[in-house]
User: Fold this.
Amino acid sequence: MKTELDLALSRVMDGLVAPGSMFGLTTHHQFDRDLPMIAAAPPSLAHYFAYFCAMHGDKEFLVDDGVRLSFAQTYAAARAMAGGLVAGHGVERGTRIGIAARNSANWVVAYMAVLMSGGVAVLLNGWWSGAELAYGIDLVGCSMVLADRQRAERLGDQAHGAKIVLIAHDCAPEQGLAALVAHGGDASVALPELTGDDLATVLFTSGSTGVSKGAYSDHRGVVQGTFNYVAQTVTVLGIMTERGEAPAADSQPCALVNVPLFHVTGEVPVLLVACHVLLGMKLVKLRS
Assistant:
């Protein structure tokens, strides 16, 4: 038997997904079936970043020890680095690029830059040993890995097929990610026009029943997953508003990031959801 809360959640969600509403549904034909899809969602993560970072502008987004970046500053840095990946490193649509690093503001900028350049962000487990990292790199076919010093050292005596590009933390993106633009390229470089069908990310399974496997997602899948999390949050907000318990409209949500960004929890319901126009959440990095 449904509880009062169950009924309230269903009622609010039914209104949110009704035709013409905020999360009104359409369908997308894939896997030999029609799948429900939120119609208003942008076609790719590149569009998602451009739109929502512009909407939030000067609102603070990333707080990482002494590094503090607004949404606009984060996007500008990622746009310049994406140009560097295309013009200086030859990244094209579908190029697999590993990210092997601890959580930081520069991890976020690098992740955005890879996706905006058309590359596939391969989120390597930052806790892996050198052998495990090398296995993941070659399993997915990464041609390049953006690695911080600790992970690069683990890979130092491992054979793999990727070029290691060093990145650093605890500094501004133009310093920590200087290697991304070292060979040319900036925000003036044209970037590819991505669609929902373009491959976006590869994350890894836990390997609890064997070796880890790479699980890929296209841009449509990641964006739709993000919008589903946002819809859940808006549903709860709707109930809180009805009860007079909603937070002040001019307050900014804030989250302490205590999960790894290479994991789907850190990537989607934390990082990507934080960008949405309805949230504009400030993310404070827990030192690791």
Q: What stands out?
A: The CA atoms of residues 169 and 256 lie 18 Å apart. The first strand starts at residue 25 and ends at 30. The radius of gyration is 19 Å.
